[in-house]
Amino acid sequence: VTDSDLERIAALAKATLATRPDEIDCEEWLARVAAYLEHRGSADPLPPELQLVANHVEICPACRAELDVLAAALDAERT
Ligand SMILES: [Zn+2]
Questions:
Q1: Which of 42, 67, 71, 74 has the fewest Cβ atoms within 10 Å of its own Cβ atom?
Q2: Are 53 and 32 contacting, i.e. CB atoms less than 8 angstroms apart?
Q3: What's the gap in Å between 77 CA and the centre of ligand 1?
Q4: Rounded to an integer, what distance in angstroms lies between the CA atom of residue 48 and that of residue 27?
Q5: Nearest CA to 31 among 53, 47, 48, 51?
């Protein structure tokens, strides 16, 4: 792998990111997870901003684990 290969890969990665502007990062996810958990159990369809929360845990194992912990804590509180 040459330097120019690395540059091409970096540019490609940037372009790929740019084509997915609706993806949120972990910080943004954390800011929305409370609303997402509140929405659980509701019959309403997920609003787009909460759909992004669901999408993020599909691609981010760390946040997936965090969500499990938070959901379990909430469920323990409710029962
Ligand atoms: Zn994450």
A1: 42
A2: yes
A3: 24
A4: 17
A5: 53
